[in-house]
Amino acid sequence: MKPNIETQLKVLFEGYSKFVDGKYLANCSCVLIKSTPNIVIDTLTSWDDEKLLSALKEENISCDDIDYVVCTHGHSDHVGCNHLFKKAVHIVGFSISHKDCYFTEPDFHSGEEFVINRKVKVIPTPGHTLQDVSVVVDTDNGVVAVTGDLFEKFEDLEDAGIWKSAGSDSEELQEINRRKILKLADFIVPGHGPMFKVPQHFKEAD
Ligand SMILES: [Zn+2]
Question: Domain map of the chain by residue range?
Fold first, then answer.
């Protein structure tokens, strides 16, 4: 029998997007999965090194303890501190690499998944960009999907204008993948808002 994999998911930073004094401010949700292996999902902007380092320190974890960095897509507010994680495999959208070595499998383009362990997998969920991925985590409290900007924030469930105006390279694909995630996840960590529980009626919708 395989030992049980302890999986702890912690939102280190809640993402946001808002207008303040006529300026548009945004940063991503950043998530730590303490597991075997350890994973960081979305690494803020390039100006956030100190912020991320001190959050990891509070979790008693160092950059070199991180085995995988997953960026849900390649936008600047989701990949900024990747360089801190020198020992990790980096998954940025559909691109998977370690140093200058690029993985040819899995093929996210054809819908394949990257299985990190029995409780954590990376799945292709294009729409916001054509190479978006989401991380699906089986926790003791239910299935959590860390989706990046597939979901901008909770409010976009009722107001599609929110995710559409945040930019969508394919609204059609994004609709399909949003529905898929709503069915499989109990909780969603969206790209730019707090984690939320998926309302039951979305799970039952066609
Ligand atoms: Zn974003």
Answer: 8-204
Average pLDDT, whole number, for the chain? Answer: 95
Residue 1 has pLDDT above 50, yes or no: no
What pLDDT is stored for residue 151 in this prediction? 98
Return the CATH fold of 8-204.
Metallo-beta-lactamase; Chain A (3.60.15)
> From the CA of 180, how far away is ligand 1's center (Å)?
20
Q: Compute the distance from residue 28 Cα to the ligand 1 centre, in Å.
A: 5
Ligand 1: distance of its center to the CA of 79 in Å?
10
- DSSP E strands, the chain: 8-13, 16-20, 23-27, 30-34, 39-41, 68-71, 89-92, 95-98, 101-102, 114-117, 120-124, 133-139, 142-148, 187-190, 196-197
Predicted confidence at residue 36, as pLDDT, reads 87
Cα 115 to ligand 1 centroid, rounded to whole Å: 24
Ligand 1 centroid distance, CA of 192 (Å): 6
What average pLDDT score do residues 52-59 get? 97
